[in-house]
Design goal:
Elements: H1 17-21, E1 24-25, E2 30-33, E3 36-40, E4 43-44, E5 53-58, E6 63-68, E7 79-80, E8 92-95, E9 100-103, H2 109-112, H3 116-120, H4 123-126, E10 132-137, E11 142-148, E12 153-158, E13 166-171, E14 176-182, E15 188-195, E16 205-210, E17 216-221, E18 226-231, E19 239-245, E20 253-255, E21 261-265, E22 284-290, E23 295-302
Length: 336
């Protein structure tokens, strides 16, 4: 994409991801580090459960190493600070100035390839979800501490401020906002700081996004199609200040760097997404203006009408690891 970002050319196809990594299945988050690309996994090829790892590549796409998530019996030097250490994986973010990586946890192939209704009716399947966030030594790539965050913590978003040593995540099963923070003793901790709607109605929080001033947090809930906005000026006590219906379902949210535009896509997983019979406004990309208080709809691309597939991931703004921001073009991909 260096020559012309509007016309990227295929450089390499990695066809041996599973075998080369030692059995990691379900590549999810691709996260750029200096000269490296870290890719989180969701499962493994032995039992298709939740035990998984992160796979590290060079920028040229050459395999470097696999870093397995700490679990009971194989903590790899990490401190287990609570009840859980299941080895699940999902998302990744880094704090270079604190020499920290943070990972979250979801579920394995057996679950995410299952019909959502069938899965939720199975007590055995519902017991197979991650309940942890892991703090890693960024440079050494070794796990340091396993924090309890019950209920499948998904996306991790970290504060932008130079002295704001904290991240947020939300739990898909229990519909909560959790704060991952460095305390006064420079120890990383986790705590629930807010509820998201009524957990009994299974809103299923998915993507989140922090504004550039660290004052607001967008929280999307897939099942009810709502975008909720929280005031996080006091990160330990978030308060919901608004909510908007985006569609029948909503997944990812991204913002322009100045915060004046907010973008949404709809698809979570092919086997979990609602069907066309559910109603209109099902698979889409949407643009809204935002004046700091309310959303103003500007554009919708109906992916079903345009026969474009299921829109999932996107990025409209970027912030480098070392504090420089640089706008970049959108990227839309299809969900699995």
């Amino acid at each position: 994409m260096h020559t012309d970002p509007a016309k990227p050319t295929l450089h390499k196809v990695i066809e041996n991801f599973v075998s080369k990594s030692g059995g990691v299945v379900g590549p999810h988050t691709s996260y750029a580090l200096p000269g490296r690309m870290m890719i989180t996994g969701l499962s493994n090829n032995k039992d298709h459960g939740g035990r998984t790892g992160m796979v590290e590549y060079t920028n040229a796409g050459d395999y470097i190493a696999t870093h397995w998530m700490p679990r009971d019996g194989a903590l790899n030097g990490a401190e287990k600070s609570g009840k859980f250490a299941g080895g699940y994986g999902y998302d990744l973010r880094a704090f270079p100035r604190r020499n920290v990586m943070v990972t979250s946890s979801f579920t394995g192939w057996n679950n995410y390839m299952m019909n959502l209704g069938t899965m939720m009716a199975s007590p055995e399947a519902m017991a197979q979800f991650g309940n942890t966030v892991v703090i890693w030594d960024l440079h050494a790539r070794t796990p340091k501490k396993v924090l309890d965050v019950p209920g499948a913590p998904l996306e991790i978003r970290c504060a932008w401020g130079a002295k704001h040593n904290y991240c947020f995540t939300t739990t898909a099963l229990t519909s909560e906002v959790w704060l991952i923070f460095e305390d006064e003793n420079l120890e990383w901790q986790s705590k629930k700081v807010a509820d998201i709607g009524d957990a009994s109605k299974i809103p299923l929080p998915v993507d989140i996004s922090i504004t550039a001033d660290d004052n607001l947090l967008w929280v999307n809930t897939w099942n009810d199609g709502l975008a909720r906005l929280f005031d996080i000026s006091d990160p330990h006590h978030p308060k919901q200040i608004s909510e908007d219906k985006i569609g029948e379902q909503v997944n990812m949210v991204s913002q322009s760097w100045d915060g004046k535009r907010v973008y949404f896509t709809s698809s979570l997983l092919t086997n979990w997404d609602k069907k066309e019979s559910t109603g209109a406004d099902l698979q889409y990309f949407k643009i809204y203006d935002f004046d700091g208080k309310k959303l103003d709809h500007k554009l919708t691309i109906d992916f079903l009408a345009e026969k474009l597939g299921y829109p999932h991931q996107m990025r409209f703004g970027a912030y480098s690891l070392y504090g420089m921001n640089a706008p970049q073009e959108a990227s839309l991909t299809s969900a699995r």
